Request: fold
Amino acid sequence: MNIALVTAFPPSRKALNEYGFHIAEQLRQSSGINLTILGDYLSEVEPELPGFRVIRCWGFDRTGNVATLLRAMRSIRPDVAWFNLGFASFGARALPAMLGLATPAVTRFAGCYTHITLHQLFETVDLADAGVTRPNLYAAGGWLATHLLLSANSVSVLLPTYRRTLQSKYRRGRVSTRSHGIFAGTPSAPEWQKRGNPTHRILAFGKWGTYKRLELLIEAFQQIAAVLPDTQLLIAGGDHPKTPGYVAGMAERHASSQIRFLGYIAELDVAELFQSASVAVMPYTSSAGSSGVAHVAAQHGVPIIASDIPDFRELVEHEGLAIEFFKPEDGASLAAKAIQLLTSPSLLTAMAQQNFAAALQMTMPEVVRQYIRSFDRNHRLQVLQGLSKVRGSARWFQRRTSMAVRWAEEVQSWSEPPAPKAGPTES
Reply:
């Protein structure tokens, strides 16, 4: 099966590049899959990751992405075009974003089976948090963009409530719920000796400045440190594209031996960072989808403290993650919850074990295997539909012998796609 994966892809640092990498890594290890990555342009010339076939044919905030992606599709003629998308994947400006989100529909109309893994819904975005200056126009654009995305052959969302929202509001499209998954095939168990020995590390990880802000977290940490002096706050990650300079400004005002700003974390260093953390904190004011950071924390058996917002509640109910909630935008509530956990070793251990157990049920090889099985079923259906159309033609009886042989060979080539081969653990 030939698969074209449309995604931001390392060494690009655009949104969802890590998720795209881990999908591609599992597809590359799957027997019977011929993978081509249709990636985003790089701002500087850098070597591609070894072992992947990457065609750089689209870019952030470019209006020509439909044409360049369609040209690439025609050259490789995939059986499946798989889009790894959020609403801002193709641009921050309205026109390039909308044109990019129309690409899956255009790809389908061009004759290629098209699937979308959609990481957010427009309806869950807090427009004020997202820095939207014209909310009414943005709402209309979000409604139209969602209809365009639902024109793909199939769509996967990562939380059950997202599927229910699409079904009730738009009443069209073929939508399934799938697990976000963790980024490892065989995750490593928590390394207890690295935590709280002697310093407890509180980890905050993400792109900061919009709905993920640091003011509340730093205010809460000052209260935590007054009670637990042997505590550090580690802030990893950089600016959200809409808030350039935000992290540098916060670091200039607040960096100290107890509050450390780590900047961008390379993929190979993520595991060590999470393994040394006693707790991961997500002080979000709103949500933008099934949290990738929460899944990385679960992969490494790290307890989670998060704002009490619906998407985090859904992760507890749908995936069984262990999350302690605090009142959104309440620094005292966050501080009290962190102190409660850090002074209760038994609770920390129980939450760590629960998150690690949940992670084992949603490894990336299993998630990708489910996608491949779905694509395979659709491929079989297309073959049978093609056979049905041929049988209905007036020339069928003249061609039935040669056609029967060809279709029989096609059907005999079907086999249950094997699970991806075990590979090295990725973080």
In short: The chain has two domains: 2-177, 192-360.
